[in-house]
Write a structure and sequence with these properties.
Blueprint lengths: L29 H31 L5 H22 L3 H24 L4 H33 L21
Helix pairs in contact: 1-2, 1-4, 3-4
Length: 172
Amino acid sequence: MEDNSPYQASSVAPVAPPSGRLDWRDEAPREITSPIKHMAILLAVAGVLALIASVVPFFGSRSLEPMLMALALGLTSIYLLLAYGVYKRSRVVASVVLAFWCLSALGTLLKIVGGQGGLTGIGFTVIFGFVSIRGTLATFRYHRHLANVRIRPARTRLSDDPAFAPKIDTAL
């Protein structure tokens, strides 16, 4: 005889949702994910701008300098790879982006001291720094959030309560 009690625990394993996540708690709040998305978008835009800035001067010239073109495409690919790594919420990539910004800020400061810098370099460096710092901190907060969520046990089910356990007949 099969017991169809709604209070008894089922033996069927939970089906994973289509997204591949087993728990809705894995979703981080928007306050954590927004700076990460902003940093990924900024890096993607910087990659596209680097590509445009490197390709446009070659349209007017008769001779292409392959070494300069390879360097420009390399810089573009670095920006786009960093954008992908940040999008995937990698702590290592976020730290590399922050170090990349530190080098960029140092270069901008050296240009300003040398008398060659302008407001556009300062403006881009400040924006890039602000977004990089926020994005890197948010990436670490995201992983701390996931660790805290996965440590907490799942909510107990009503069927696990001893009061609803199946009755064992000891008279037999």
